[in-house]
Amino acid sequence: MKSSLQKLQKFLKLEAERGYDNRAVVGGFERMVDAWQIEARNEELPEDLIQVVSERLRDYQRLNQTSRKEIIEGLWKRIQRFSGVDREVEKIEEPPRKPHLAPPTAPSEPKIQDAVSPETNKEISARLPVRSRKKISEEEKAALDASVTVLQGVGPRNASALSRVGLHTLRDMLFYFPRRYIDYTQLKAINRLQYGDEVTLLGTLQSVTKRRVRDNQVQLVEAVVSDGSGALKLTWFNQPWIVKRLQSGTQYTFAGKIDQYLGRLVINNPEVEQVEQQQLSTSRIVPIYSLTDQITQRWLRRIMNQVVTFWAPRTCDPMPEEVLESARLIDLSSALQQMHFPDSWEQYKLARQRLAFDEIFLLQLGVLSQKHAWQERTARDFETSEGWLEAQLKRLPFPLTSAQQRALQDARKDLVSGHPMNRLLQGDVGAGKTVIAALIATMVTHHGAQAALMAPTSILAEQHYNKMLQLLTELTFPISATFDTEDSVEPPLTTQPIPPLQPHEIRLMIGDTPETEKREIREGLANGTIKFVIGTHALIEDPVTFSDLELVIVDEQHRFGVEQRAVLRSKGTNPHLLVMTATPIPRSLALSVYGDLDLSVMDELPPGRQVISTHLLLPSERERAYQLIRKQVDQGFQVFIIYPLVEESQASEAKAAVEEHARLKDEIFPDYKLGLLHGRLSQEEKENVMARFHNGEFQILVSTSVVEVGVDVPNATVMLIEGANRFGLAQLHQFRGRVGRGSEKAFCLLIPESADAAENERLQVMATTNDGFVLAERDLEQRGPGEFLGTRQSGFSGLRLASLTDVRLIEKARAEAIKIFERDPNLTQPENKLLSEELKFYWGGGQGDIS
To answer: Least enclosed by CB within 10 Å: which of 168, 190, 621, 670?
Structure first.
């Protein structure tokens, strides 16, 4: 582990031991952030990890003890995942263990020679008879939570090795599933292999050699394996350590794709596993577990077989009988047995389906519980008359789209429901979310209450502030306009209408706001003269109090932590909450992960919004992109050029912003003014660069992905993205949304690192659609849900077997969860007792990002 992470781990553990008093580091965590950032970047830690750590620790001193605990535990888990362990190797504090359904898996490599007695499990609980699913005793449950050291042959040294893959108890072992399987019933003889086959073959290694090729640049390992029917050549490129793992005369299984070289069949870079003679069976599917040092497959598989065979039938099944029957699921005991040692692939599929269903089902119960808790609260009503709203709509310089009108009506219903609004407003780049947020804010401030909008950066906050000033304080419709006031409490507008807010009632509060102005804003918020404040995390600082905060708006919600949103909401009494995101959310995620939120989807662009012309170029066509850039800049427009890295490294061939900025400035665009933006700049430096670009001082901005969110530069018409294959489609779509915000035609140019056909095929989707929802679905399929989850926690990271792309499974699990929840929302009925315990364990006692 990198020294910067080891140091951070030490501080986090000490902080937990001290009770979260912010004294693990002299002067508090916020004092160490800058120095730690430098060390982390020198060790080339991912920028997103550095940013998360920095953001969390800078705000640490302002948080209460509960929020501090969440921060420390969240960072601890993130470090463990980054280090290659799916679950904490060493917990900061050891919570009570309860039955759990979603176990971890972990990374690999191989030596434990200790024997395991066949009688081990019986010795542990010979007194415990096998009982029915509903009658398993507390004594049996406690036995399952016993340490692995109760197994004969597993002493402290071996237990320490097992702990590195998250195996602390017998129950952990039950839920530690294989990462793959070898089907010894489907082995193929070498003389029956054909080009293109993807096979597993069993053979004896005849020879293995290592040599350098291509001017000593590549290390090549070559081996020959035979199985009695023939011989086959195997090759590994730049993996010299393979030689130490292979011994001539030993049997191995090799898995890979059959290729061809000089007319002869070969396998390039195959996976290899040593065969244990006593484990072989011609009619058995053999599990392959993730390993760590000092653990072999042979040893771990033997222990697993002992534990699973005896203890799987004695495992409590928390799922109610009616759910098992309705969803056609097998019982948990059978599922555990078949996941570890499948009798057939059909049985394996049934087992995996059951366990995946459990994960989604618990996820659904969790978000339904959060939604129920939120709806139990009461909130102030804000009724808006048709006449008043019509007046505000006619003030706008453009008509609302149908999608905007639907979102506005959704919010109106929320504001008169008597319960706090808890709505996610998701819309594609440029769909007009800011206008809707402005109108919702006026519905609240019109009644004398206050609203606050929190944005992730000062640039974005300032942009929102200027937009809100324009929308809410300027008069933009004819004096003679009249309105239908049949249902209105206000009289008809016969004189010049007054804008809903005055400029002094809307204020901006960011880190750079002078202290005298901050003091003035704090006084205005406290006495109620300021109705609408826009800002960054400066809004959640302790001195900020509100007279009557009734609406909280959070922009780019995935950029904020749970505790930051909670602190802002706590400054009011059950205020209405609107969270916004410019990342379209796939339907399956909306059904599951965001099931606690009411969704308003804005999938329609305003009239006149430019469709951005997107083109995929080969690296050899880069000069074409440069020619377009010169042409656009000469016409007075501006350009973004995005690179995937800050600086080049030997480990990667990807182009990097710092080196490329120098090259472009000196060799390609010497006559133009170029700016440079990347994550290693301080926040003040970043905002200074963006401000200069926005004001036209730079014609070309060379940047990393830090430019992704929200910056509005109407004069920018070209977005060139180098190393485009390194970004997800949703992220590329966000980049593309930075241009085309004016009336001129805009271009997005994608240049991958190579002409590889598969990558180009994936990126070609960008050139065929401007629909962010289509791209989001493709991104979810290809890259998983990580980009959409942001800082959502607990159950969302607990999915091991279920896929958030499986809409059918999600819909089935959600339907069953709703049936249970409608009948017993608090899971207090006797038949739901085990389910309630399981739900608490699954969510770790935590909360979602809204509750």
So the answer is: 670
The length of the chain is 851
Residue type, 330: I
Parallel, antiparallel, or unpaired for β 198-213 and 218-226?
A: antiparallel
pLDDT at 83: 73
In a domain, 596, yes or no: no
Specify whether the CB–CB gap between 422 and 374 falls below 8 A. Answer: yes
Q: Which residues contact 650 (CB under 8 A, 6 or more apart)?
A: none
CA dist., res. 184 & res. 281, Å (int): 7
Torsion of CA 339, 340, 343, 345, to 10 degrees: 50
Q: How far apart are CA 788 and CA 558, in angstroms?
A: 8
**pTM of the shown model:** 0.62
**Is residue 567 domain-shared with residue 628, that is, in the same domain?**
no
| Identity of the amino acid at 262 | L
For the beta carbon of residue 743, count every other beta carbon within 10 angstroms.
10
Same domain, 573 and 621: no
The Cα–Cα gap between 441 and 449 comes to: 9
Contact 229, 187 (CB under 8 A): no
Name beta bridge partners: 508.
534
Distance CA 147, CA 601 (A): 49
Crossing angle for the helix pair 65-82 and 47-58, nearest 10 degrees? 170
CA distances from 87 to 105, 149, 159, 461, 637 (A): 8, 20, 16, 37, 50
Cβ 578 vs Cβ 423: under 8 Å:
yes
- In this structure, are residues 195 and 256 in contact, taking their beta carbons and an 8 Å threshold? no
Q: Report the sign of the C-alpha dihedral through residues 275, 280, 286, 291, in that order.
A: negative
Longest Cα separation, the chain: 99
Residues near 800 by beta carbon (within 8 Å), at least 6 away in sequence: 86, 102, 103, 104, 105, 177, 359
Q: Contact, 327 vs 801, CB < 8 A?
A: no
Per the listing, tokens 């061809």 go with 260
Greater confidence (686 vs 275) lies with 686
Whether the per-residue pLDDT at 172 is higher than 60: the answer is yes
**What's the domain count of the chain?**
4
Residue-range definition of the domain harbouring residue 561 = 432-581
